[in-house]
Amino acid sequence: MSLNRFLENAISPWMKKDGAESDIVLSSRIRLARNMNAFTFPLFANKEEALEVATYVKEALNESQTEALGSAEMLTMDDLKTNDKRILVEKHLISPHLAEQSKYGAVLLSGDESLSVMVNEEDHIRIQVLSSGFELEKSLQIANSIDDWIESHVTYAYDRQFGYLTSCPTNVGTGMRASVMMHLPALAMTQQLQRILPAINQLGLVVRGIYGEGSEALGNLFQISNQMTLGKTEQDIVDDLEGVVKQLIQQEQAARITLYENSKLKLTDRVHRSLGVLSHSYVIDSKEATRRLSDVRLGIDLGIIKNVSASILNELMIVTQPGFLQQYAETILSPDQRDERRATLIRERLKMEYKQVEE
């Protein structure tokens, strides 16, 4: 098992692909929650039952391979160090719940890290498919193919009236969460989000931070997903979410044009100030770093900054998180030490980018 393959590279291979509307929609995700009818659900299972589920699923999934998994590997939570699990969370490869509360959990990861099958999370099986840009339909097709493949090896807990049975009642039905990660700096700067976000909630969608439920929306990054899973088909859920996301894309694009045309000097000053802070700071906390990175990303998308690639900003959003910082330092760091390491890492990475452009 080569755990380093998933820990050493901040940018997962799937993130390097160019998806639709990738300047605003960073990623799309489909997640399916499933349970097996012959076993106690994870939240109520004892140690022996949880281990039996993990063994059963591992053996079932190892019986055959499917093309979407590629060179897949199974990682067991009990075998991982605390910081290793933290890094997998920071890369969105596993959920915080699996990392923190599921000692007998595991995850099957595909070669390009776009697909993960979590075992003994809140539910027995959670299938997650990630795609770059606005690619919900593509993600749904892959998730359904993996779901069918797994169902050919295990028997799901399913009710004709209620659909797939899950630990949390809000997931009963399709068991599906569809979500997109959006970068909405112009709407935030023009204070339009204060009006838009409550309206989104009224449409049956929920807006969260970068790491989902309970997380803060740092760097103007927002995760938008469906709230209801019962009474709708998977396609209905995707169609509803796509309709709202398309409107948000149009509104963000309009807000960017307005900012650029009406406040070009102030916007240019803000963007370059943030680039200057990132390039020369010796201490910077995560909130300021993500805020500055958001400004620079907007500057890149609008053509204000030309010597930094957008992919570098995606990378820095991840490697400046606590888990990666401690991996590079090869030791546990205090908050002050992390702020110093974060600043150093950003400075050095931007210098490398400038050098590559000059060459």
Structure characterization notes:
The structure is a single chain. By secondary structure, this protein is of the alpha+beta class. It is 47% helix and 15% strand. The chain contains 13 helices and ten strands. The strands form two sheets. It has an eight-stranded antiparallel sheet, with helices on one face. Strand 3 and strand 4 form a beta hairpin. Helix 3 packs across helix 12, helix 9 crosses helix 10 and helix 10 runs antiparallel to helix 11. The radius of gyration is 21 Å and the shape is globular. The two termini are 38 Å apart.
**How would you classify the helix and strand content by structural class?**
alpha+beta
Mean pLDDT: 88
How many helical elements?
Answer: 13
Kindly report the spatial arrangement of strands forming the biggest sheet.
2-3-4-5-1-8-10-9
Strand content: 5-15%
> Which stretches of 5+ consecutive residues score pLDDT under 50?
none
Q: What is the total tally of β strands?
A: 10
Q: Quick one: overall form? A: globular
- Please bin the fraction of helical residues: 40-55%
Largest sheet: 8 strands, antiparallel
Q: How large, in whole angstroms, is the Cα Rg?
A: 21 Å
Helix-strand pattern, N to C? Answer: HEHEHHEEEHEEEHHEEHHHHHH
* N- to C-terminal distance: 38 Å
Protein name: Protein-arginine kinase
Domain Phosphagen kinase C-terminal: 24-255
GO molecular function: protein arginine kinase activity
Catalytic activity: L-arginyl-[protein] + ATP = N(omega)-phospho-L-arginyl-[protein] + ADP + H(+)
